[in-house]
């Protein structure tokens, strides 16, 4: 069955590469979306989005005949396309380069349609300008959609380079952790099957709905990490059963019945935390929710069906390629160092718990001055025509384009914008402003501003523009703004507003799940508190590395808290289930809390450490991409996993469970 799924998925892959789209930037119901809809309805020639054609020449000035001929040929070629509306040349600006010129273009269609039409528009524009100028003039299309479309092309190349680093490192960790090449091959095969099948599922889904590059990146990353982790847990239980004398098939069945139960709960946790992203009113968050649910479902299915089949079939080969230095040493009565450390922790749990909490709070402290922002990734666009076009526009003072929609009652006079226009003309941040009216019910002001659309200065200008409009336009006039800055601002606000809903949903759902799993009230509360500490410490480290260190100073991507919180919370709860499930098994059998905690540490320290190392490497591979948001996300998840597997899972959890004793398992109204 899995061979057939993998083969079908491979056949579907070329279709996915062709249909892959950039992540959605629109926020349904936001002010920018309302403005775009009003403009498309009232002045359809301006389209749903306004972009700029940026012309440039190294040898010709914009006023020379050949330059003008090239512009005219490009305008004619694009005007013949049904997806292009009005084409309006922008006047020269003070301080602008005389070898540059700009034309505003209205683009028709919804977001997905505009993205799919963009390559054809760009090809027609380049062909026309090249033929008319003999290659002396160049043109590119600049807009927020084009900028993020460029990032989608960057993602595909980055995925290949990331996999080239992470998969070999993960394979080496498995070989050294398991002590044999044959044993390491089983998680790798299961992880590979999960990746292939999940990608095939995305390819099938892409025929019905848009699939973006961010969704693909996170699906592949989570499928690889979860596939390796879940299979590793079942493999180690299979080994234990084989050492107990069970035959291969029975050992695989025992491993699936015991470790498989833990894996099933872990997968349910990831699915629950991913579902919470659906509460955010941003399509981009919905893509990540589907990516997390798909990765968890596919890896769960592979771990519970493919892994036992492989363990049964390849039992004799699991010890192939065994590392000599990892063969069992001569018998000694002295317990290993890590077990002696665990026994020492059991004797002084209060001190260890206090030290662990202190370390986490110190790590979290820098997050108090965390700066969030949503910017174009200039480094990822370096060397591209869109990157060069953005730089030229900023130097020429037409970096930010805003369309101000001013609806008015039907068949009345246009909105009186004289006072607002005069104030904008006097504003040094504004380079161009003009007014259009449809003669019926809509007035539109087109404003070109000097600040880069993703800068703090542009956000300040947007706030000042709304304040000016409220003061200088007729009383009660509705003002709706769209454009790159307005769309980025609405996306950031929509994400941050949804963060609190996701936080509440994840806390409630995960606490209910842990309550059912462990039949305890304190264990879920303790787990949630420690996971919140882990997330705070992670953002503290993220602030130091990407914001505070000399030479960095970058804002943390405003979308990152949503991603990191859901992924880290889900993985942290996974490790909580790994450890506490073993402790609970022993406690319910012997009713000795201290012995149960030691038993849990003895049997989960190795799988948790190895699984965390593999997951950290998998997400750490995102740091080898060119996109800053992927680098920040990869670092944050990898750092959180390391913190969770060391400070929290190996120190804080056992210490608190030792201190709480039998109260760990208290549940009001429950019978013994």
From TrEMBL:
Parts of the chain that traverse the membrane: 164-181, 188-209, 215-236, 257-282, 288-313, 352-372, 498-518, 525-546, 558-584, 605-624, 630-652
Domain Membrane transport protein MMPL: 29-350, 427-667
SUPFAM superfamilies named in the record: Multidrug efflux transporter AcrB transmembrane domain (SSF82866)
Membrane topology listed for this record: Multi-pass membrane protein
Subcellular location: Cell membrane
Keywords, in A-Z order: Cell membrane, Membrane, Transmembrane, Transmembrane helix
InterPro entries listed in its UniProt record: MMPL_dom (IPR004869), Mycobact_MmpL (IPR050545)
Record bears the keyword Transmembrane helix: yes
Gene3D superfamilies: Multidrug efflux transporter AcrB transmembrane domain (1.20.1640.10)
Any one GO cellular component localisation term in the record: plasma membrane
Record has Cell membrane as a keyword: yes
Protein name: Membrane transport protein MMPL domain-containing protein
Organism: Nonomuraea mesophila
Classification lineage: Bacteria, Bacillati, Actinomycetota, Actinomycetes, Streptosporangiales
